[in-house]
Specification:
Blueprint lengths: L3 E7 L6 H9 L9 E7 L6 H9 L6 E5 L5 H11 L4 E4 L4 E3 L3 H11 L3 E12 L24 E2 L13 E4 H7 L18 H11 L3 E14 L6 H13 L1 H6 L7 H23 L2 H4 L1 H22 L2 H11 L6
Helix pairs in contact: 5-6, 7-11, 9-11
């Protein structure tokens, strides 16, 4: 019986994977733990497979490689859930560097919180270029999460959930709560539409499992300079906003969706107008203001965008059959 599985979904991770695998090689307090690492190659076009093969020859636990040809993080995570040999699966992105006790801290938390269907890490950023001071409130959208030194349960009414980076999920919670085919697949070439992690966690939370923040699981998230460039960030926040119709409507019965969408649209429009009033011309020059403007605009336009893309129409039965938390 495997106690813990680390799953690493990656796309073109040849340059990033070695540092992460070295960190995992140096995990401490794992002598009594049976663990494994699986790398899910999401159709990479570089030497990702070769990197994994090189590390397999001298690794402290089984290191397995799987190819998931269907593009999108949701497909890679689903593959990891299917092949993992443990009921506890810790997801690490290829730019995450876990602390040396991350595995043992995750396992201990799972043992003391048996009703936790998923729990996230404390994540600090290692920035190649320091972000502007007023951008700090937006850092959670880059998977930078620090909610203090005490464990915290995510309450559904707050409509906040942890990112998939550094997230530990119980396989049982995923299998019994998340549909086989979710609506959002994650970012793919030509599209920054995201929110697939929020969608999956919403299903888990709605089905009665607790979602937690565990500050004992520490991760450094490396952020290269290009991820703080305006062109990338605007596309990122646009993708986040466009996904929100899905996560907002999951728990709403079909006959009430028009009413809830009207309420959400009214609130989005109010926030948008207030933002324009507060920042005016700064929206063009201030990075944080521009990103928030894009998020608010895209959230307002989310149902129109998704209908035009055929995503909502194609997946309408899936929305009706399952439920989750508002976001």
């Amino acid at each position: 019986m495997t106690d813990f599985t680390i799953a690493i979904p990656t796309y073109n991770g040849e340059q990033r994977l070695p540092q992460l695998l070295e960190r995992l090689r140096g995990q401490t307090d794992v002598a009594s733990i049976t663990w494994e690492v699986i790398v899910v190659d999401n159709n990479s076009q570089d030497g990702t497979a070769r990197v994994v093969q090189e590390f397999q020859t001298n690794f402290p636990c089984p290191l397995r490689y799987y190819l998931e040809p269907q593009q999108g993080a949701a497909h890679a995570r689903r593959c990891a859930i299917q092949v993992a040999q443990s009921d506890l699966i810790g997801f690490l992105d290829d730019d995450n560097l876990p602390a040396s006790d991350w595995v043992s801290a995750a396992l201990q938390f799972a043992q003391t919180h048996p009703t936790a269907g998923a729990f996230g890490s404390r994540i600090v950023g290692d920035f190649e270029v320091e972000p502007p001071q007023n951008f700090k409130p937006l850092l959670p959208f880059l998977a930078i999460i620090d909610r203090g030194p005490q464990p915290l349960r995510y309450q559904s009414w707050r409509k906040v959930l942890p990112p998939s980076a550094g997230l530990v999920v119980r396989k049982q919670a995923w299998i019994t709560s998340v549909p086989q085919q979710t609506i959002l697949a994650g970012r793919v070439q030509g599209s920054m539409l995201t929110g697939e992690d929020t969608e999956a966690l919403s299903y888990i939370q709605k089905h009665g499992w607790e979602i937690w923040y565990n500050p004992e699981m520490n991760i450094v998230h490396t952020i290269p300079a290009w991820r703080l460039e305006k062109e990338y960030l605007i596309k990122l926040f646009r993708g986040i906003g466009h996904s929100r119709y899905v996560t907002r409507m999951i728990e709403v019965k079909p006959e009430y969706r028009w009413l809830m969408q009207f309420m959400y649209a009214t609130n989005d429009l109010r926030k948008l107008l207030w933002h324009i009033l507060c920042y005016r011309q700064k929206i063009k020059t201030d990075l944080a203001a521009a990103c928030r403007m894009e998020l608010l605009t895209s959230s307002l336009m989310s149902p129109i965008y998704l209908h035009r893309q055929g995503i909502i129409l194609k997946q309408r039965p899936m929305i009706s059959s399952f439920s989750g938390e508002l976001h």
